[in-house]
Design brief:
Chain lengths: 151, 369
């Protein structure tokens, strides 16, 4: 046999249902909530610290992001963040620390190919699509905003 | 086709070694099976494993267990090459030979352009044939080593395969330090290498026959569920092996598939059952043997190194100590590339079966002419 026919594929899918373990969705949700909540609570603590030092809440956001990015990068470099990620899933991928992890981890991985073709070229391998579609969707939203509400 | 409970209807059955002589002089029987009448011998095997594998249930069976995953090398690729080189050299040494005496090195791995094998072969001066069979490489290499030795194209052939968790991760999936969650069907690539020295004569179990698999593609596309994708290929090859040789599941003390892991193993059993072959306690899968479930490996082990270290480390010792007399090793491979799955291709899969038997069993056993 070379490739399965559609009928065979369907029959196989039925067989698979019996054997494929289901994802522990409830456990994943709880862990993501707890770990994601913990990370963002730390972020809030950092923000409050900057506010207590006299910055306005709006101005404090930038240094807070900087601190959280630093923490994400540091934990990636120490080999800890991948272990948190395995456990917490989206809970550690979604906050800005996860974004830092997605940039630092390829930078570390491809350092062996040198600073130009390795670190430089591959650093945004994971985060690149996020940036591209982030920019594209913000553009779409801005255009819609202009169309609906005017400039 | 396995998805439908394999093929129906009967095909002519042959008894091993009883095929009338023709173009192949009885060296090929049935549709896909070769018989080795000169009985090439597995003279020695060697296995080198990583630290995680060393902590697994089979840890004490490996010749060398590494303490870390880089062993002083600068890159994962070089580290994998070192695994392969050490396994190859150790197998030659255990057979009391020198590498200059070995006629062929048949080796493969999972990396692009077989770079781990190429780097290892650079250090070992044995005439080298690189093989790509994904995780089915060990039985592919054993088959071809047996063909070369049985055909008297050389006295000694070294069959070897390697994989490394981190080199595979960076090539197929994500950077190793990236924090992402693995689904329960995912498998953990083994860090390890196995080598088997096949010789024309001597002490040790013999390779009696091998069934070369066809590519089977059941249409699955998820690289995080390769056990399900490969199970039909394994079932197909095992089915074909029984058709070609006239043997039955109970003729084997152990039938071991390569790396179907916990998900694929159950599927393969079901598929074979549907086509009338009931494999019972004499069936296992190397992918469920390497790690303990507590080691956080989801469905189990995978990689060329999986069947290589289980065969070279554990199964060969079981044969040597007589706990099993007749083994069918069916290494399984998912022949995907990162490019092919990104382009939406389904995963082509393959399995090759090699029968390894103690010499005692060959002389008196069933189904041998």
């Amino acid at each position: 046999m070379v490739k399965a026919s559609n009928r065979q594929k369907e029959a196989y899918q039925q067989l698979l249902q019996k054997h494929t373990p289901s994802r522990p969705i409830f456990r994943n949700l709880v862990l993501a909530f707890l770990v994601g909540g913990a990370i963002t609570t730390i972020g809030q603590g950092v923000l409050n610290f900057f506010v207590s030092q006299g910055l306005s809440p709006k101005d404090a956001a930038t240094p807070t992001a900087g601190v959280m990015i630093f923490l994400g990068a540091l934990l990636t470099g120490l080999g800890v963040y991948d272990k948190i990620g395995k456990f917490a899933g989206m809970g550690s991928a979604l906050p800005i620390t996860g974004f830092a992890n997605s940039i630092v981890s390829p930078a570390l991985e491809f350092k062996r190919e040198g600073f130009v073709l390795g670190v430089g070229a591959r650093m945004f391998q994971v985060a690149g699509p996020v940036i591209v579609y982030g920019v594209v969707s913000s553009l779409v939203v801005s255009v819609l905003h202009i169309l609906v509400k005017g400039v | 086709m396995p998805g439908q409970g394999l093929r129906e209807g009967k095909e002519p059955r042959y008894q091993l070694g009883l095929q009338p002589k023709g173009f192949t002089d009885g060296k090929k029987i049935g549709k896909q099976t070769v018989v080795f009448h000169n009985r090439p011998v597995v003279l020695a095997t060697a296995s080198v494993a990583g630290p995680k594998e060393g902590k697994g249930p089979l840890g004490r069976y490996y010749d060398i267990v590494k303490e870390d995953t880089l062993f002083g090398e600068r890159t994962w690729e070089k580290a994998e090459a070192r695994l392969l080189e050490e396994a190859a050299n150790l197998a030659v040494k255990k057979a009391n030979l020198k590498t200059q005496e070995v006629d062929y090195l048949l080796a493969g791995d999972l990396l692009n352009q077989l770079i781990a094998s190429n780097l290892a072969a650079r250090e070992i001066s044995i005439p080298f044939l690189g093989l790509y069979g994904a995780c089915a490489t060990m039985s592919e290499a054993l088959t071809l080593a047996a063909v070369l030795v049985d055909g008297r194209y050389g006295k000694y052939a070294l069959a070897a395969a390697s994989s490394h968790h981190d080199s595979a991760e960076r090539q197929y999936r994500y950077p190793t330090e990236m924090g992402n969650q693995r689904p329960p069907t995912a498998q953990w690539t083994v860090t390890g290498a196995g080598a088997a020295l096949v010789g024309a004569s001597g002490e040790g179990p013999v390779i009696t026959c091998a069934t070369v698999g066809t590519v089977v593609d059941i249409g699955l596309k998820d690289p995080n569920d390769m056990g399900s994708a490969m199970a039909p290929a394994a079932a197909e090859t095992i089915w074909q092996h029984f058709q070609d040789t006239g043997r039955k599941p109970e003729d084997y003390d152990l039938i071991a598939t390569g790396d179907l892991a916990s998900v694929g193993k159950g599927i393969a059993l079901d598929l074979l059952k549907k086509s009338g072959f009931h494999l019972g306690r004499n069936y296992t899968d190397c992918g469920v043997m390497v790690y303990d479930p507590s080691q956080d490996v989801q469905a189990g082990a995978s990689g060329c190194g999986c069947s290589a270290i289980v065969f070279a480390g554990y199964l060969m010792k079981e044969l040597a100590e007589g706990r099993i007399q007749r083994l069918l090793l069916v290494a399984t491979g998912a022949l995907l590339s990162p490019t092919s799955y990104q382009q939406g291709e389904s995963i082509p899969c393959i399995a090759h079966a090699v029968a390894v038997e103690n010499q005692r069993s060959v002389k008196g056993g069933a189904g041998i002419g």
